[in-house]
User: Fold Kynureninase from Acinetobacter stercoris.
Amino acid sequence: MITHEQCLYWDKEDELKHFKDEFALPKDIVYLDGNSLGARPKNSLNYAQHIITQEWGEDLINSWNKADWWGLPVRLGDKVGQLIGAKQGETVISDSTTLNLFKVLSAAVKIQANKYPERKIIVAEKDAFPTDIYIIEGFIDLINQGYQVELIDGVSDLDRVLESEVAVVVLSHVNYRTGYFYDMAEINTKIHAKNALIIWDLCHSVGAVPMDLNAANSDFAIGCTYKYLNGGPGSPALLWVNPKHRDEFWQPLSGWWGHRKPFDMAQHYEPAKGIRRYLCGTQPIISMSLIECGVDIFLKASMQKIREKSLKLTDLFIDLVNQECSEFGFELITPTDHHYRGSHVSYQHPHGYEIIQALIARGVIGDYREPEVLRFGITPLYLGYEDIWNAVQHLKAIMQHNEWKNESYLVRGAVT
Amino acid sequence: MITHEQCLYWDKEDELKHFKDEFALPKDIVYLDGNSLGARPKNSLNYAQHIITQEWGEDLINSWNKADWWGLPVRLGDKVGQLIGAKQGETVISDSTTLNLFKVLSAAVKIQANKYPERKIIVAEKDAFPTDIYIIEGFIDLINQGYQVELIDGVSDLDRVLESEVAVVVLSHVNYRTGYFYDMAEINTKIHAKNALIIWDLCHSVGAVPMDLNAANSDFAIGCTYKYLNGGPGSPALLWVNPKHRDEFWQPLSGWWGHRKPFDMAQHYEPAKGIRRYLCGTQPIISMSLIECGVDIFLKASMQKIREKSLKLTDLFIDLVNQECSEFGFELITPTDHHYRGSHVSYQHPHGYEIIQALIARGVIGDYREPEVLRFGITPLYLGYEDIWNAVQHLKAIMQHNEWKNESYLVRGAVT
Assistant:
C-alpha cells in the first residue's frame, strides 16, 4: 500500500528535486504533457529579451558573426549530441523532424541504391507517429523508382520483414502512444545483419532515456527538441548521422546553408564537408536559440539519474493506478518491463477523451491520442512523487463521481 | 544641386515619417540593410514576452487551441497575402524559402509532366540567389527523370530559352544583387504563351514593391519574411499558389501539418484541401508569431505610398552619388528606369568589400555581395531623406581620405 506520506518522503530524498526551480510552471497544476510540449525554462525569457533587443535590434546583421547565428545549428547540435552519444560534429539542429527525416531517408536510400539496387522496401511501423509514414510516402511517390513502404506491427514483426529486400528501416526509439522503448543496439544488429540501414526517430526518447547512438552503431537519427528537451513550441529539430556515412552522400534539400562555401555565391551546389551538408535554408534564429536554455539544464543533470527517477515515477504511476483505480477499466498499454519502457505511461479506456478533459479541468494536464489512449508524460526534472500521487487521486475522483460525463468534454479541438 | 536643407525639407513633408517610431533602431546609425535583415518592430519585445510567458509558460499545450498556434501559418499567410495580391486561403507561412521552393517546384514539375511530358528543362537565372539554383539541382538529382537546369543571363535571355522544352521557370522578382525588378505580368504572359509555368521568388520584392500575383496570373510564389517585412532573424517563409493549381497536386514534403485530418493519426497521407497541403512539420512558433508585428505595420501603411517614397529615396541615393562621388569609380548596376528598379541600390567597385567595412565603422550599415557589389537597401518605413544624405556624405569622406585602405577591413567574416 503506497501512501501520500511515502511520496512526500521520496520527494524529500530526491537528488534532482532542485531542478524544478529552473522551470516556470503554472501554479496548482500537475503537468504530465512534457512529452508533447516541454515546460518553459525560466532562463528563456531573459535570453529571448537579449536575442530580440540586442542581437536583432541593436547588432542587426552583425549578429550573423558577433552572436554566431551562422554557427548555431552545429553549436547547439553538439550540445544535444552529448545526450544521445554523439561526438562533436555529428549532429545539427535544423528545420523540423519531418523535414530532417526526408533528408536522412534520401541519404540512406541513395547509399543503399549504390550497394544493393534490388532492395526497394522501406519499413516503418503502423504505430509510428504518422508524419514518419507520410514523409516516406511523399519521398517514394516523388522519386518513382519502384520503392514501397511496408508497415510492421511493432518489433515482433521485424524479423519477418527483414527476410525481404529491405533497404531502410525507420523506427521510433520510444513509441509516441504506448511508450514502448526499443533496444537500439539489439535492433541495429538485427537490421545490419540483413544489410539494411536504420533511421531512429528520437522524438519521444531524447531527454527521456539515456542512449548512445555510436556505441549502438546506429546509422541515422532525427528528433524533436520541444518535448523532453524543453526547447520551446515547435523549436527546430535534431539530425544525427553516423560519421561512417557522413561524407558518402549529401541530401536533396540542398540549400545555401549546406553549401561548402555559402558566401561565394557559386552557381552550383557543392555540399559542405561534415554534418553541415544536412542544413538547408535560413533558420528561425529566435526559436532555435532558445533551445539552449532547455539543453543546458540537462547538461547540468545526468541522463542516468534522470532515467532512474523516470522509472521510479512511472512505476509509481502504474502502481497507484492499480491500487486506486483498479475497478475503472484502465488498460495499461505501456510495458511493465523497465528495459522496454520510455518515460510516459499510457492507458486505453473507451472514454479516454472525456476523462482527459475532466483531468485538465482539475489541473492535471495529460493528453489524448487516438484510439482511446490517455497519455501521461513523466519529466523527472520538474515532476515529483507527490505530483504523481495527486494526479492519480484526481483520476480516481473523476471516475468515482463520473465527472467525465459532461457534454462539453465531447467537443474536440486540435490536440498535438 | 541637391542640398542637405532640401533633404530636411523632404523629411518634414514625408507622409510616412511617423512609421519610424514603430521600430527600435540603434542610435546614430543609418541602416541600409533592411533588405537582408529587417529592423526590429518595437512591439516584437512585448509580444515575445507574451508568447513565452503566457502562451508557452502558462497555457502550455492548450495554446495549440487557445492561441491558435495550429492556425498561424494560414492566418499570417492571409495577412502577408494582402501585400502580394493574394486572396484569403492562397498563402501560408512555413519553413524556409529554400524548402518552399522545393515544394512548389515539385508541384509545378508534376503538373507539367502530366500535360507536357517532353518538357524537361527548368530555367533559373545565373544571377539568382544561389539557393534557388541549388534546390533545383537537388530536386533534379533526386528524381533522376532526365530534367536539366538551364541558367539564363537575365530577362533578355528568356526568349531564347523559351524556344526549347521548358517546363518551369524560376525567377527573382527583384534581383538580390542588382535590384533589377521584373515586370511580372509581362514575363508571365511570355512564359504562359510557351506553356511553361512560373515560380516567383519574392525575397527582395515582398514589402518592397507593390505586386498583384493574381492579376498578373502568376503560378507559384515563395519569399522571405525577415527582410523588408521585418519578421525577425530567419522567420519562416511565405508560399503562395494560384488557386487554379492548388488542388491539382500536393507536394512531396508531406508532413502531418499538411494532412487532411492531422489528428486522426491515419496511416496514409491524404493532402488537406486548399493551401494547407503545402505545410509539412511542426513550425517554430515563437519565430513565426513575431512575423505579425512587422506585417501589421505594413497593413497600416499603403504599399503604393511605400513605393513612391522608395523610388524618391533610391533616386536621391543615385543622384547624390553622382553629385558627390563621381570621381571614385562607382559603377551603378541598378536600373535607372523606375519600372525596373526594386528597393535597393547597388554599385560595383573593385574595393567594394573594404569600402563597406569602412562605412560600417562609420555607422552606415550596407552590405557586400560577390563580386565587388556594394548594396544599399532602402526601407521607406524607417529611413528618411537625411539618412540618405548622411550615408552618401560618409561614403564621400571614406573615398576622399582613403579610409577603406585599412588592413583589418580585408579580413572576411560571414555575410548574409
Remarks:
- Chain B is about 40% helix and 15% strand.
- Chain B touches chain A through 93 residues (CB under 8 Å).
- Chain B has two domains: 4-41+302-410, 68-299.
- Residues 303-325 of chain B form the longest helix (23 residues).
